[in-house]
Design brief:
about 375 residues, disordered C terminus, alpha+beta, globular, 9 strands, Cyclic Phosphodiesterase, Chain: A, four-stranded antiparallel beta sheet, about 15% strand, five-stranded antiparallel beta sheet
């Protein structure tokens, strides 16, 4: 009796191991280059094995061709546009100028590696837009992003505190974003932006994870520094600022900017379009009402006579109204921040190198 039970157990064990082996073999085939949706046909027993062999070779060729195309696509992917959160708090810009001047005093050559204060920003997403049509698609994606951001923030302000200094490989110097409750919504906004633009067919994003940072210098702005022996940013140059608190930025705007087009007169990047977020919606609505009379045939909005959405606004006014709104909102912000911080002087003025130049190191914008 015991012998019979042992024999049955042995047979069940052999059957189980055989099933495991088949499953393992199937898993291995799935990882092979020629594996496609026809994987079950590839493994099935047939009276004409040479047909499967030909199909396998065909699938392998198709797979290799797809891999080549994917590699070429990745190689051709050169971001030239980005979503920017501009830094407008004068306390932050003034602190960074002090930091930059302290570094320049220790090595005057590094003046050419500094980012101008008009360009300070947080990069939310990089992308490739090759022509005017793709730029318009990008603008549409940015407008679609706005309600998603409002849903993430739930009516709350997104305030970004900046503290301390770090570098990327001692080649790019940046002010760090302090830890806190603001990190998760910012990361969620970045991920939502990436998904929204990619769903429009836009090549966007990077392989590495999103790490928000405020760049203040990069050696790639002055390649000739390497020939003069400056191959990295010496940590001693910024050690006094290693835990310095630079201030807080209230996120009120996200811009679609060009990396390559000529910068604006204030040093900020060429901006294709923008969205206003947060509690500044009310002042912007006031300005919109002011400019309504300048639009010849303003529609009644939806069937219930509601206000037109941002997409309608941009189509009707060709972004002229939106630009006026953004200027008014920015002025409102600056006046509010200046009133809340009495005694703030004008920011330190220094020479701005290559203001109209372009940065070749797009990966560390």
């Amino acid at each position: 009796m015991e012998s019979s039970e042992c024999e049955n157990v042995s047979k069940e064990k052999e059957a189980f191991e055989e099933e495991e082996f088949e499953a393992s073999a199937m898993d291995s085939l799935i990882d092979m280059p020629f594996a496609t949706v026809d994987i079950q046909d590839e493994c099935a027993i047939t009276d004409v094995p040479h047909i499967n062999l030909e199909r396998s070779k065909e699938n392998e060729w198709i797979s290799k061709d797809q891999i080549k195309k994917k590699k070429k696509k990745q190689k051709d992917y050169q971001p030239n546009y980005f979503l920017s959160i501009p830094i407008t708090n004068k306390e932050i810009t003034r602190g960074i100028k002090i930091l930059q001047n302290a570094i320049i005093q220790q090595d005057k050559q590094l003046a050419k590696a500094m980012i101008s204060d008009g360009s300070f920003h947080i990069t939310l997403l990089v992308m490739q837009l090759l022509n005017e049509e793709e730029v318009n698609i990008g603008i549409g994606a940015l407008l679609e992003l706005k309600p998603f951001i409002e849903e993430i923030l739930q009516g709350k302000q997104l305030i970004l505190p900046f503290q301390g200094i770090d570098t990327f490989g001692n080649q790019v110097g940046f002010v760090k974003l302090a830890e806190g409750d603001h990190i998760n919504p910012l990361l969620e906004i970045a991920e939502t932006a990436k998904r929204t633009f990619q769903e429009k067919g836009i090549l966007a994003g990077e392989n590495r994870g999103f790490k928000p940072h405020l760049t203040f210098m990069k050696l790639s702005k002055a390649p000739w520094l390497r020939k003069k022996g400056v191959k990295k940013i010496d940590p001693e140059f910024y050690e006094k600022f290693i835990s310095h608190r630079f201030g807080e930025e209230m996120v009120h705007r996200i811009d679609l900017c060009s990396m390559l087009k000529k910068k604006q007169s204030n040093g900020y990047y060429h901006c294709e379009s923008s969205i206003v977020i947060g509690e500044l919606e009310s002042p912007s609505s006031t300005v919109l009402q002011r400019y309504r009379k300048d639009i010849p045939s303003w529609p009644s909005g939806d069937k219930n006579g509601g206000e037109p959405d941002d997409a309608e606004l941009v189509r009707l006014s060709k972004r002229l109204v939106e630009n006026a709104v953004l200027k008014a909102v920015q002025q409102y912000l600056e006046e509010t921040q200046n009133k809340s911080k009495p005694g703030d002087g004008s920011s330190v003025k220094t020479q701005e190198a290559d203001r109209n130049g372009t940065d070749s190191d797009n990966n560390r914008k």
